[in-house]
């Protein structure tokens, strides 16, 4: 069995050995990067600079919360708002792999710039097993380029350190619990963020729509879980589809987009089943999304596919 | 500690095979399929798992050095998906693109419940699949152990040597008795 205590015990001296100078960590505020930060912080302390990038594709108030958390953890941190940059880079881009690669490269360039300023040579990332497995290599097909692996440019100045490479999410959570990190139970969120929850071009306007829908799904699900109506899914979110359909709002015809609600159960993200959630919960989600987003969204569908054949995120 | 290595044929779940073995306290390591038999054998392993891989790789005449492993191994070998298809071809059977490929949740039916690999597994159980190809003709000297509605050769076993092939994936979390099947394979490896 995976032993979190042993993992922590063995990893810290290894990191001390591996990182000779200053290191920068790509800090999203999710479970993986937070665990990574805590470990590296224990190993090299002040020599670690945590960098959070607001890509413009974060969830509602997420970057604000991450900032608070970095303060609370007592990190030496930098907060970079690069949303305009990211929106510009993704303008006109519809292909999901292109989106992921552009975002991956953008991240690295920002980190490189920050690293240069701080005189840093190492880049620490919270890459976990499914990230590099699904990104593909000489033996494996690319299922999707995880931004922190398949999105990395070939010419990179920083030396990568990835202490969680052999772990799956459930194991990272075990480590997080041992380290008493408040994020240990947070649902996974993809590095490219909401950009891969918008099928088609990820414009700022469409991002706003999917951000609102994701927020409604999260709140309603967490509410239902708290009330004991259902088990907490592994992941629960909304996807904005480019499909349009006809609706009727107060005797008036509307023609708007569709939101797909995706909720899955999993342990390690390598296989998933769709969540069988109570109708009353999905009902509330549907009503709230359509009533909040009005003429933008007039239809909500529920995704009932397992992985395989599908993946968790749509892109 | 029992030592079972995983040969990486490029499957999405190769690392999951490694993890399942490690979780049940087996000493394990992922080895690229380009390693020679001697390189692996010098570690005095007790068994070997041949992982899955991309579509059609199990149908080629060569799958890294898997042929050499099957030729020389005296220890138990468990072929999974592409590893299973290659095993069938190596021993004179046939593997072809599936008429009906299976992805995700499938019901497995055991035909030989008494086999040690399936000890404690009910006649019908849920397994997870992800294959474009399958074994279409059992090699001589093998017996059929399990089937599903769309794939008739889901599990097979060599009659005289400790070689098993599985089309489904016992290493993934959603296969109901997956870890149990791995434990049984470990038993086979320790028996000798």
Detailed description of the structure:
The complex is a heterodimer of chains A (315) and B (192). With 315 residues, chain A is an alpha/beta fold. In chain A, 40% of the residues lie in helices and 19% in strands. A five-stranded parallel β-sheet of chain A has the order 3-2-1-4-5, with helices on both faces. In chain A, helix 1 crosses helix 2, helix 1 packs across helix 7 and helix 2 (31-44) crosses helix 7. Chain B is an alpha/beta fold. Chain B has a single domain, classed as Class I glutamine amidotransferase (GATase) domain (Rossmann fold). Chain B is built from five helices and nine strands, in the order E-H-E-H-E-H-E-H-E-E-E-E-E-H. A nine-stranded mixed β-sheet of chain B has the order 2-1-3-4-9-8-7-5-6, with helices on both faces. The longest helix of chain B is centred in the last third of the chain and has 14 residues, at 178-191. Chain B is globular and about 40 Å long. Chain B starts with a strand and ends with a helix. Classes of the chains: A alpha/beta (315), B alpha/beta (192). Chains A and B meet through helix 6 of A and helix 1, strand 5 and strand 6 of B.
Summed over residues and divided by their number, the pLDDT of chain B gives a mean of: 96
Radius of gyration of chain A: 20 Å
> What is the CATH third-level topology name of the largest domain in chain A?
Rossmann fold
What is the chain-wise order of helices and strands of chain A? HEHEHEHHEHEHHEEEHE
Can you identify the CATH class of chain B? Alpha Beta
**In total, how many domains does the architecture of chain B comprise?**
1
Query: Rough shape of chain B?
Result: globular
CATH hierarchy, class of the largest domain in chain A? Alpha Beta
Separation, N- and C-terminal Cα atoms of chain B:
15 Å
Report the portion of residues of chain B in β strands.
25-35%
Q: CATH superfamily assignment of chain B?
A: Class I glutamine amidotransferase (GATase) domain
Shape of chain A: globular
What strand order characterises the main sheet of chain B?
2-1-3-4-9-8-7-5-6
Total number of β-strand segments of chain A? 9
Total helix count of chain B? 5
Low-confidence stretches of chain B: none
Q: Structural class of the secondary elements of chain B? A: alpha/beta
CATH superfamily of the largest domain in chain A: HUPs
């Amino acid at each position: 069995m995976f032993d979190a205590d042993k993992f922590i015990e063995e990893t810290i001296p290894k990191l001390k050995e591996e990182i000779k100078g200053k290191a920068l960590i790509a800090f999203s505020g999710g479970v993986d990067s937070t665990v990574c930060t805590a470990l590296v912080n224990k190993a090299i302390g002040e020599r670690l600079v945590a960098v959070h990038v607001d890509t413009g594709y974060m969830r509602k108030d997420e970057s604000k919360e991450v900032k608070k958390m970095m303060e609370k953890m007592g990190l030496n941190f930098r907060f970079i708002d690069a949303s305009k940059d990211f929106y510009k880079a993704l303008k006109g881009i519809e292909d999901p792999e292109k989106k992921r690669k552009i975002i991956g490269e953008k991240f690295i360039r920002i980190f490189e710039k920050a690293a240069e300023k701080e005189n840093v040579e190492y880049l620490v990332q919270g890459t976990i097993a499914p990230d590099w497995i699904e990104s593909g290599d000489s033996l494996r097909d690319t299922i999707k380029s995880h931004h922190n692996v398949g999105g990395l440019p070939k010419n990179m100045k920083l030396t990568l350190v990835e202490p969680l490479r052999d772990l799956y999410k459930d194991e990272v959570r075990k480590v997080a619990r041992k380290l008493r990190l408040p994020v240990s139970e947070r649902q996974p969120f993809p590095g490219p963020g909401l950009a891969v929850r918008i099928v088609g071009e990820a414009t700022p306007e469409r991002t706003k729509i999917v951000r609102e829908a994701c927020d409604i799904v999260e709140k309603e699900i967490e509410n239902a879980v708290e009330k004991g109506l259902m088990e907490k899914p592994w992941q629960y979110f909304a996807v904005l589809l480019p499909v349009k359909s006809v609706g009727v709002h107060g005797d008036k015809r509307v023609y708007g987009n569709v939101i797909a609600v995706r909720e899955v159960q999993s342990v390690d993200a390598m296989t998933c089943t769709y969540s069988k959630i109570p109708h009353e919960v999905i009902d509330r989600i549907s009503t709230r999304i359509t009533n909040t987003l009005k003429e933008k969204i007039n239809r909500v569908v529920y995704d009932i596919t397992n992985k395989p054949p599908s993946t968790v995120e749509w892109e | 500690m029992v030592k079972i290595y995983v040969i990486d044929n490029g499957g999405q779940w190769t690392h999951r095979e490694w993890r399942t073995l490690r979780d049940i306290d087996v000493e394990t390591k992922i080895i690229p399929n380009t390693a020679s038999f001697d390189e692996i054998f010098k570690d005095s392993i007790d068994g070997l798992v041949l992982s899955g891989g991309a579509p059609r790789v199990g149908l080629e005449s060569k799958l890294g050095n898997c042929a050499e492993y099957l030729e020389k191994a005296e220890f138990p070998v468990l072929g999974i998906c592409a590893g299973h298809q290659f095993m069938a071809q190596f021993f004179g059977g046939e593997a072809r693109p599936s008429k009906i490929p299976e992805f995700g949740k499938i019901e497995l039916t055991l035909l030989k419940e008494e086999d040690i690999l399936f000890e404690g597994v009910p006649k019908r159980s849920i397994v997870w699949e992800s294959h474009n190809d399958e074994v279409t003709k059992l090699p001589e000297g093998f017996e059929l152990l399990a089937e599903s509605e769309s794939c008739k050769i889901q599990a097979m076993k060599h009659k005289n040597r400790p070689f098993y092939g599985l089309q489904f994936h016992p290493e993934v979390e959603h296969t109901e008795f997956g870890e149990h099947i791995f434990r049984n394979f470990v038993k086979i490896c320790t028996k000798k």
